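Quick one:
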Amino acid sequence: MRTDSAIQQPIMAEPLERAIDSWAAYRSALIETVDRASSSLLIFDPDLAETGFEHPAGVDTLKQLLLRSAQLVAVRILLQDSGFLERQCARLLTLLGQYNQKIEIRLASDPRALPDAAFVVADGVHLVTRFHSARPRGKCCVDDARSTAPLIAQFETLWVSATPGPSGVQLGL
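Output:
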């Protein structure tokens, strides 16, 4: 945050918004948003299948956030279904196992009552959202607390009633 030297008041960045209309643009916006994050990430998604977080660039970007964040739990993920994560995301599960104290995954208790949208909020002010989880159309917002506030409230409400999801910890049975 910059300050104006004449009056020593913080100058807030103007919020930026851009439309997203393809899966490639969506995944690119997610990586950019995680790169912008300094401390926290909230992810609300049906199953993470369209996020690209399983790819090497996605895992590396998440790892870098985990390393720079001083938050006790830096990444919270709320899913409707963990099947894709458990079956198709070996890299992400490995990261989860390495940093299970800084990542928490929960499963929505009543998937039928969930909104159709999917979103990622970084540091409470950066946002990537799909208006409908089955389509890539959405938007990316930077420095826009007004856009993120209702989604954070929705996330926190759903988080409270969600059940624990995969932890990445291997059971030695």
